[in-house]
Design goal:
- The chain has about 160 residues and is of the alpha+beta class.
- The protein has one domain (about 10-155): 2-Layer Sandwich (Beta-Lactamase), CATH 3.30.450.40.
- The chain is built from four helices and six strands.
- Strands 3-2-1-6-5-4 form a six-stranded antiparallel β-sheet, with helices on both faces.
- The protein is globular.
- It binds methionine sulfoxide.
Amino acid sequence: MAEDLSIAKGSKEEQYQNLLPQISGLLQGENNQIANLANIAAALKEQFNFFWIGFYLVDSADELVLGPFQGPVACTRIKKGRGVCGGAWAQAKTLIVPDVDQFPGHIACSSLSRSEIVLPVYKQGSIIGVLDVDSSELNSFDEIDEKYLSQIVQLLDCPVQ
Ligand code: SME
């Protein structure tokens, strides 16, 4: 398959709609998780130029470890329940943080990060990690991001074709 991404202009929703089938294509037939997470991070970075986009993966019963990402270097380990990532894991739900300074316990890997969305990533019913997207601007994420990013992470839960 061609590895070139077609980058869409237009509304955020149009950009996600253009990207989703391309990410699906990138994952098709590949069951190596690191490769798939890496390409998802790269594709989202290329389309949206997010400040930081990447995965934290469940490494033990109470700790996440940094996975494939795009952006500045980041904290390596996050305890369950800590910060936005550890919170999304512990609560098993998507967290949208419009202003990280107002989120108690936010972990500032970079002082430039201002808003954030974190979604749990499931495989066969269990959370295997989280997808974390950070913006250098306030209020960057809403239900459109939640809708499409959750569709993107659901692609990781598909049986290998
Ligand atoms: N801010 C996150 C930590 C990860 S970095 O932003 C890459 C948090 O509070 O969980």
